[in-house]
């Protein structure tokens, strides 16, 4: 992932206008070719990942369109450390379970998966954030590098099976000769034995370590999302694939914003006079703040849409939702003498006939007006 990336179409060996069926066929062919259980070349696992990544993008119409337009740059912020899949999106394992009849996960003694829960703020979820996780996991032993022998001592070919890992036993029976092949009991099928076991791991090849790793939480992530970081689970010992790391994301509530899809929602207060006359208010946004125009005659509950100020679509940092500002028209609770006088005049101009100058009876500074109370006598 650090070197320059190959074109996804080249990786799968398909034309840009190939059909989804062609993509699937090409993927299957390449995946079978580089699957680490079949292909023992050193770079097979990297090639396999590359094929998987290319297919995940090209088989998803939205991501494909984005790739066609922006190339690998379209996935910035997403192609960071090791995210090769999202749950429910066709992760590594899912695809192969369907192609290989579910046999891949159990095929080798693979390291255990790890689960990790982290909580992030609403705003970090919107824009993505790097997070350091502290894992306590089985890793390849640092002293023997997983080969189980004390450094300086030899790992030798197993004398029982001569490095084959298998033994054949020939049985003569009444019906004839039978040959049975079993895992070598001396080396447990490894083909090699250790003269002096590594002191640090007692010859297991693995040890438990506390390890800090940084993961990049992608922009637009939702509460409850499960991210998969391949190969960051526990070591399965020398020659075996590591388990995966599952990161469960919890998103905290925000004081100002809530989320609906990729839109952010908020409410803003507008003074009733401004609601009547129109004006400008400043509202908070995920990026800072912005002025919005209040049109004359605005009613409480009206909504103003600020385009592209919402949450980025996951996997597409240049597409964002909108911000919806619901306006709440507020009536002033305190008025000074001049403001009262102005409103009284205003009331008269609307024909709201005055009942009393100063009610002072807890019914509000405005006093009571006949047409407000018409047919409403039980209110006190
Ligand atoms: Zn060791
Ligand atoms: Zn053996």
Fold and architecture overview:
It contains 10 helices and 18 strands. The longest helix is centred in the N-terminal third of the chain and has 15 residues, at 20-34. 23% of the residues lie in helices and 30% in strands. Among the domains are: 1-107, DnaJ domain (Helix Hairpins, Orthogonal Bundle); 258-330, Sandwich (HSP40/DNAj peptide-binding domain), CATH 2.60.260.20; 337-373, no CATH class. A hairpin with a 2-residue loop joins strand 5 and strand 6. It is an alpha+beta fold. Mean pLDDT is 81; it is low at 76-108, 359-368 and 370-380. The N and C termini lie far apart (73 Å). The protein binds zinc ion (2 copies).
List keywords for this structure.
disordered C terminus; 18 strands; HSP40/DNAj peptide-binding domain; single chain; 4-stranded mixed β-sheet; binds zinc ion; 23% helix
Set down the secondary structure blueprint.
Blueprint: H1 8-12, H2 20-34, H3 44-58, H4 61-70, E1 83-86, H5 92-99, H6 104-107, E2 114-120, H7 122-127, E3 129-140, E4 155-157, E5 166-173, E6 176-183, E7 192-194, E8 206-217, E9 226-229, E10 245-251, E11 258-260, E12 263-271, H8 272-277, E13 279-285, E14 288-294, E15 303-306, E16 312-313, E17 316-320, E18 323-330, H9 337-349, H10 370-373
Parallel strand pairs: 2-10, 12-18
Antiparallel strand pairs: 1-9, 3-8, 4-7, 5-6, 9-10, 11-12, 13-14, 15-18, 16-17
Helix pairs in contact: 2-3
Using the coordinates above, name the CATH class of the domain at 1-107: Mainly Alpha
Question: What best-fitting shape do the alpha-carbon axes yield?
Answer: elongated
Indicate the radius of gyration in whole angstroms: 34 Å
Number of strands: 18
List all distinct small molecules, including ions and cofactors, that are bound in this structure.
Answer: zinc ion
Any idea of the CATH topology of the domain at 1-107? Helix Hairpins
Strand content: 25-35%
CATH architecture of the domain at 1-107: Orthogonal Bundle
Q: List SSEs in N-to-C order.
A: HHHHEHHEHEEEEEEEEEEHEEEEEEHH
Give me the number of helical elements.
10
Described by strand count, sense and barrel closure, the largest sheet is: 4 strands, mixed
């Amino acid at each position: 992932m650090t070197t320059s990336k190959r074109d996804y179409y080249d990786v799968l060996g398909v034309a840009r206008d190939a059909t989804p069926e062609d993509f699937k066929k090409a993927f299957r062919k390449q995946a079978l070719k580089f699957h680490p259980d079949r292909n023992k070349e050193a770079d097979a696992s990297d090639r396999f990942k590359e094929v998987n990544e290319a297919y995940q993008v090209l088989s998803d119409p939205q991501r494909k369109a984005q790739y066609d337009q922006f190339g690998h740059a379209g996935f910035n912020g997403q192609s960071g450390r090791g995210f090769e899949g999202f749950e429910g999106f066709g992760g590594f394992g899912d695809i192969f379970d369907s192609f290989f009849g579910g046999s891949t996960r159990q095929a080798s003694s693979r390291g255990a998966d790890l689960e990790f829960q982290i909580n992030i703020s609403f705003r970090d979820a919107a824009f993505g954030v790097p997070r350091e996780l502290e894992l306590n996991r089985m890793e390849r032993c640092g002293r023997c590098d997983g080969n189980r022998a004390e450094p300086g001592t030899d790992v030798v070919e197993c004398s029982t099976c001569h490095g084959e890992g298998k033994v054949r036993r020939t049985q003569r029976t009444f019906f004839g000769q039978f040959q049975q092949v079993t895992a070598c009991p001396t080396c447990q099928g490894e083909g090699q034995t250790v003269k002096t076991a590594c002191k640090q791991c007692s010859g297991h090849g693995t040890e438990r370590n506390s390890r800090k790793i940084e993961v990049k939480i992608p922009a637009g992530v939702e509460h409850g999302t499960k991210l998969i970081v391949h190969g960051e689970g526990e070591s399965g010992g020398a020659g075996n694939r590591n388990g995966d790391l599952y990161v469960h994301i919890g998103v905290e509530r925000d004081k100002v914003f809530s989320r609906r899809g990729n839109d952010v929602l908020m409410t803003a207060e507008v003074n009733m006079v401004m609601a009547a006359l129109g004006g400008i208010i400043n509202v908070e946004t995920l990026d800072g703040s912005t002025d919005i125009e209040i049109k004359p005659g605005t009613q409480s509950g009206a909504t103003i849409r600020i385009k592209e100020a919402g949450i980025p679509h996951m996997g597409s940092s240049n597409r964002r939702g909108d911000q919806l500002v619901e306006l709440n028209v507020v009536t002033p609770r305190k008025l000074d003498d001049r403001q009262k006088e102005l409103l009284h005049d205003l009331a008269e101009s609307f024909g709201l006939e005055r009942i009393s100058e100063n009610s002072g009876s807890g019914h509000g500074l405005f006093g009571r007006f006949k047409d407000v109370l018409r047919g409403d006598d039980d209110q006190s």
